[in-house]
Amino acid sequence: MKGQIQKALSGFYYVAHKNKLYQTRGRGNFRKKGEKIYVGDWVEFESENEREGMILSIYPRNNSLIRPAVANITLGVVVMSVVEPAFSSNLLDRFLVTLEFANIRPLIVLTKLDLVEDDTVFQAWKKIYETIGYHVILTTEDDTELAELKEEFHEELVVFMGQSGAGKSTLLNRLNIHLDLSTGEISESLGRGKHTTRHVELHEVAKGLVADTPGFSAIEFLEIEKTDLPKQFPEFVARENECKFRECSHTHEPHCAIKQAVETGEIAKERYDNYLQFLSEIENKRPVYSKNKRKSSE
């Protein structure tokens, strides 16, 4: 039988097939081969009843994220707070780069707008990202914006990601009152939220499947190479053919269209500054070696 994994918990995988959920385990050879099973995976499995099943194989993935461990994602909702915790364009761009690299369509949601007296700054941020081509939704405690958000979920596999304490679980509870996901308080000493989501699970929301996932205060670019990074900024890609050099890094080269666009204000300086920081992190990251690679070299 073919089904999709909708929850992974305590070594069990819950597979959806023809409106039923089967509790299964993975075959031992998955571990031997180093293959990991992700929520969102399409799998071949066998089961005589809904409590005792076995996953036989995993179908090829369209994409996947390691953190959170979800596969075959079609929409990534980046939830950022404007206050409590404070808005960070750097963190937002980290999430966007991660989604772009995984070929996942991003959607930006800014929360807690009702907690600021003047939203001029955030309207400006909204314009910056919409000019790039991203869809941005500003939300308050009023549910009037939720209809716009729900329209994006139809037949999508959606991952929620963003700041800890930005209100991801709260937002999902508002989208589907039957979820009753636990929410955390903001840690005043840390200035960020406590992690409340303990496992990854797909929930039915607005005719789509949504994974509620933990928020992170930092993202490392472990798989992205420095030549890949410029391709994850859509406004760079739109102008890259105007650069003098084909593999322009947009840092020190003369006649760089991206640097010129930053000077004229066509590209936001904050975005370019974040790009430079990300590039530096990638150039200085330590190489990652697997156990198999180490053994083969010994």
From TrEMBL:
<feature type="domain" description="CP-type G">
    <location>
        <begin position="62"/>
        <end position="219"/>
    </location>
</feature>
<dbReference type="GO" id="GO:0005525">
    <property type="term" value="F:GTP binding"/>
</dbReference>
<protein>
    <recommendedName>
        <fullName>Small ribosomal subunit biogenesis GTPase RsgA</fullName>
        <ecNumber>3.6.1.-</ecNumber>
    </recommendedName>
</protein>
<dbReference type="GO" id="GO:0042274">
    <property type="term" value="P:ribosomal small subunit biogenesis"/>
</dbReference>
<keyword id="KW-0963">Cytoplasm</keyword>
<feature type="binding site">
    <location>
        <begin position="111"/>
        <end position="114"/>
    </location>
    <ligand>
        <name>GTP</name>
    </ligand>
</feature>
<feature type="domain" description="EngC GTPase">
    <location>
        <begin position="71"/>
        <end position="217"/>
    </location>
</feature>
<comment type="function">
    <text>One of several proteins that assist in the late maturation steps of the functional core of the 30S ribosomal subunit. Helps release RbfA from mature subunits. May play a role in the assembly of ribosomal proteins into the subunit. Circularly permuted GTPase that catalyzes slow GTP hydrolysis, GTPase activity is stimulated by the 30S ribosomal subunit.</text>
</comment>
<dbReference type="InterPro" id="IPR010914">
    <property type="entry name" value="RsgA_GTPase_dom"/>
</dbReference>
<keyword id="KW-0862">Zinc</keyword>
<keyword id="KW-0694">RNA-binding</keyword>
<dbReference type="Pfam" id="PF03193">
    <property type="entry name" value="RsgA_GTPase"/>
</dbReference>
<dbReference type="InterPro" id="IPR004881">
    <property type="entry name" value="Ribosome_biogen_GTPase_RsgA"/>
</dbReference>
<dbReference type="GO" id="GO:0005737">
    <property type="term" value="C:cytoplasm"/>
</dbReference>
<feature type="binding site">
    <location>
        <position position="256"/>
    </location>
    <ligand>
        <name>Zn(2+)</name>
    </ligand>
</feature>
<dbReference type="GO" id="GO:0003924">
    <property type="term" value="F:GTPase activity"/>
</dbReference>
<dbReference type="InterPro" id="IPR027417">
    <property type="entry name" value="P-loop_NTPase"/>
</dbReference>
<keyword id="KW-0342">GTP-binding</keyword>
<comment type="subunit">
    <text>Monomer. Associates with 30S ribosomal subunit, binds 16S rRNA.</text>
</comment>
<keyword id="KW-0690">Ribosome biogenesis</keyword>
<feature type="binding site">
    <location>
        <begin position="162"/>
        <end position="170"/>
    </location>
    <ligand>
        <name>GTP</name>
    </ligand>
</feature>
<dbReference type="GO" id="GO:0046872">
    <property type="term" value="F:metal ion binding"/>
</dbReference>
<feature type="binding site">
    <location>
        <position position="248"/>
    </location>
    <ligand>
        <name>Zn(2+)</name>
    </ligand>
</feature>
<keyword id="KW-0378">Hydrolase</keyword>
<feature type="binding site">
    <location>
        <position position="250"/>
    </location>
    <ligand>
        <name>Zn(2+)</name>
    </ligand>
</feature>
<dbReference type="InterPro" id="IPR012340">
    <property type="entry name" value="NA-bd_OB-fold"/>
</dbReference>
<dbReference type="GO" id="GO:0019843">
    <property type="term" value="F:rRNA binding"/>
</dbReference>
<keyword id="KW-0547">Nucleotide-binding</keyword>
<keyword id="KW-0699">rRNA-binding</keyword>
<comment type="similarity">
    <text>Belongs to the TRAFAC class YlqF/YawG GTPase family. RsgA subfamily.</text>
</comment>
<keyword id="KW-0479">Metal-binding</keyword>
<dbReference type="Pfam" id="PF16745">
    <property type="entry name" value="RsgA_N"/>
</dbReference>
<dbReference type="InterPro" id="IPR031944">
    <property type="entry name" value="RsgA_N"/>
</dbReference>
<dbReference type="InterPro" id="IPR030378">
    <property type="entry name" value="G_CP_dom"/>
</dbReference>
<feature type="binding site">
    <location>
        <position position="243"/>
    </location>
    <ligand>
        <name>Zn(2+)</name>
    </ligand>
</feature>
